[in-house]
Structures
1.
Amino acid sequence: MRQIIRAGVLRMRKSLTLAAELGSMTLFHFANCLALTVAPYFILYRFSGLNEVPWSKCVKSAVGYVATQLVKMLLLATAFPVSAVQTERDDLIRVALTCTVDVIDLLGIYVCLTKFSARYENSAVKTKVLSTVVGWGVTEVVATRVVPLWVEARGVEFSWNSLFTGLDANISLVYLASTVALLWMWSRPDFNQTLLPLLLSLLLSLCYSPLFLYLLSFSFSPTPSLLLLTRLGVGLVTGFLSLLLFHGMSNGKTKVQ
Amino acid sequence: MQMEVLRDLVDRGAGSLLLLLPQNFSDIHGELAQQWRELERSILSQKIPIPVYLSLEEETLGVIHDSLASSAAREKHSTVTASLWHILTGYGYQMISEDQKEAEVVKDSHVVTLVGKLAGGLGVQQRLPTVMVVAHYDAFGAAPSLSSGVDSNASGVAALLGLARLFSRLYRDVKQKPRSNLLFVLSGGGKLNYFGTKSLLEEDNDDLDSLIHSSDYIICLDSLAATAASQSCDQSHDESHDQSHDPPHSLTVHVSKPPKEGSKAAVMLDLLNRSFSQLSSGPLRMVHKKIRLSDDLLSWEHERFSLKRLPAATISALCHHGDPRRQSMFVNSDHIDVEGLTQNVAALADGLARYLYNLSSLLGTEGEREGGERMATLPTVSSEYVSAWLDYLASHSRSPQLLTEDHPLVTGLYQAMSQSLQDVTKLVQRPEKSDPEFVLYHIPQTTLHAHKVKSPIFDLFVAVGVALYLCLWYSLIEFFPWSAVGFIPLPLKVKSSKS
């Protein structure tokens, strides 16, 4: 008897919201994730006084991003061919390699920062840094977050993944902002060379944080949310240090001038 | 009870219904099995406006079911906060079937009937009388791919194959050969109103025709192994209720017309009766049911023969043709009494042999003795053989649309018959084009995808959360005194300003 009741009735939801018609995750949910992913960049652009600068400057950074990625891809494909058999150790090496190649990103950002914004020498330091952040960051977020989100949106299954992706994009923004600020400092001729070790270690820690996170997940296998929190923690610490350095320097500079 | 639940669901707007069948049908016993069969029958007999899916209870489905059941139980008595929390953390499931096409008609639908004989000795074959043993081998159930029909009619087929093997040994010895032909028929389309049998009788084949029409008696086998619980149709049900458990119930002979006193049919039944009382569970009980031509379906296979005025009877453990066990998938080999089946086969063989060797006239002690001697040479029925066939048949679903001409199971049966019988033929029978007797549909099988989904309320919560977060961002950028951070007195700053 119990079995009959048990086996009895698995009700299927007749038309659970839009999903049935779309054959995808609910449009609402998709909008949520998209907003979470992209809106911070938009807010940054719109409300940090960046919209007064011609946006072609941001576009230049975007082009810079694309070019850098192409160079990275070429390098990865030629120098580090993927082996057919993937073991966990291979995976570790792969992550380490990717992080190393990401150093090229720093080069790209540096070029964007110094060459593309050279003409706007008289514009504020903040604008210079932020325009690079927005140009580079938006392109990155479209390429690495929005496209996967769109693909994932075709599945019906709910997963926390897409929400995490959105949050992760926000953390990436913090990372990127710190990196750009640090690089700007390095590019200055009046940069205090005694701070170089600190600056370099911050840059490297930003660059190699994926490897650190990979090792962490490899040895402790934490939940995705915990991993996200760790990433956030690393980002906040390095971001705060960078912020201290940056403001110390920009304020000092204005004082000198 | 089930039907009411179902109707209630339809009224409440259920999109479709998924029935989880127990992974192993042997887990369901007695009353439960009966309830399942009733449910099956009601699903089949009633018009249900929503699609009904049947699936075996797999692990993943079990997990989904458990989570749904527990959430349903929680919904019943919970506070607002608890249910809100549940909305936030819990999942709903959305089931999507891969394709929702209507079942397609099988283009070249046909049934296959296998016929094999053992020719009697001493005399022209055609002039000798014939005894026919018939069993249909297909099965029926709510889900075609799950219908293995263990009792109806795997037991009949196993019994027939056992008989064929046994008598082939008797017929091999020229001296021992009885003066009758034995014709074995495995008819297809038994669940399609005995279409295979019908076509067999209309077959344009002189040899076969003469054999069939010279038959002394035609014995159809159907569900020979059902255990217990068939007393319900017993007339003296109320009286015998107390004792109904102790004796293994006897088999029933279903006839359309009681045989006349002294006719060959009467002799045959008499002999079978004696054999069954000696070797098996007890004397046969005769149930006489006239053919109602107004009915859409014939109730037993012998009625096909009776309609052609051939003497025929069906021997079955079931005493009513409407027994749900004949058309259900909820019968499995655990509900089957193999021992009893073997006994029944032995009794059948004994009775048939007595008839074939014409021992009916020697009923005295002398005859008994002589009969006993003869019987000593009658090989025993191998219960392994019977149960092996039973297992083999039970492990394959045998819906009529599956059993095409070259289906391995049909080939297997053909080979088994060829091993012991002569002139085994495979008759492929097709329904009439203009007015088909039956229409077969392809088995609609689909893959269900279960998707974890969140309720719209959850999305609303997420939207509020995202909005709050973005406001925080905005205020950080717009109002946070970023430059104030720079005034934190740091030795670093002093150095940089000096440089």
2.
Amino acid sequence: MKSDNKIEELMEGLFNKDKRALSRIITMVESDKPEYYSILKEIYGHTGKAYRIGITGPPGAGKSTLVNILAKQIKDRGNEVGIVAVDPTSPFTGGALLGDRIRMTGLLKDPHIFMRSMASRGSTGGIARTTTHVADVMDAYGFDVIIIETVGVGQLELDVAGAVDTTVVVLVPEAGSSIQAMKAGLIEIADIFAINKADREGAETLKFELQDALSLMPAIKNKGWDLPVKLTVALDGTGIKELVDTIYTHKTHLEDTDHLNTSRMNQKKVNIIEIMKHRIENQLWLNPELEPTLKRLSNLSMEGKIDPFTAANTFLKSAKVLNVNIDASFLHK
Amino acid sequence: MEKIKVLVAKPGLDGHDRGAKVVARALRDAGIEVIYTGLHQTPEMIAEAALQEDVNFVALSILSGAHMTIFPRVLDKLREKGIDDIVLTGGGIIPADDMKTLHEMGVGKLFGPGTSLEEIVNYFQETSKKKEVVVS
């Protein structure tokens, strides 16, 4: 009973724009607390108003510094801005050192900007499994714009594209030679490119190379949108106004062409799939029978009595994850 | 599963952050989520970051001798924001008498030079098990 009251209090706080309530609810989401499901039910009707921007790119490209200045400028255009910045969790210790705040300390003095660090907690797609849900909570709180900053990515950590409306891929001038290799993956999810640290040598060259590479690629994400390549220096603000303008132009393009609806529909789909995946995985990994069964199956496999496919199906069936017609009786002999 | 979250902050003008970084890494290696703020934080900024990140601990590193000013101010700012369940702790060059005074004000355990990382990590883990409320 007591916890029910607490949830009601927290939700009331959320709608009254109490940052502490917001912060608390985010922790519940991140920790996968069952109370969150009842909260989500109540607040979900209040989501969908915020425009979501994803900032992704390799480590050291200047994503955090860029987010810092983007947030300020977007706020100056009359918006409340929520930021979720993801940094990697150590797969060995489960710990994480979240350093995105170092580049964003100026934002702490601004009551219209809220920034939350998130550890990836086992996810390998560039954002955490619950990042979208955290963005939903921020959306319900009433932020007009939500910026999601990914961990430093390589070529295939692309989950952010399924979580936001506009994806900005941040590169540095030195990325030139790797453009070829990047033709698949990271480049395909961009709606806008920002070549940051553009005061360094090679920025213009990269811009031309990139535009050249893009001209040979069919538009993958949204047709009728020529992928812009912008030069920025996040540290001194060069090119940032143009970048914000371009984000707004993309937003208008999505709205005018009905692509926003398609993109949002896709976001919902990704969301549901991710939840199902997580549920199924939990059913697997949290099953107390898993370890002993795996041991038995690997032994049988070692002895050549069972192939790995049959072994996997056998376990999935006995764990009631998969409904296949297979005789699992030998497991219990 | 709820993780232990710690905000490691360097308040004031003191720019010696090696200690803060070493401790931050040790905590990370112990499976804790550490948010590092960087240098030159004001008490207001530290309290606001603690609120936005919903941390269990705020750990200050102070080597400038300003601990008797900064710890109480951060405590005040946390209380002003209605945060009553965060443990404020830290380390630096802090004389034993001052540690005692600060503890009486509501500050958690403070660590001086020569403390082992193990001792520090243990403190965070043990204290979060107890869910001790220090700032009240």
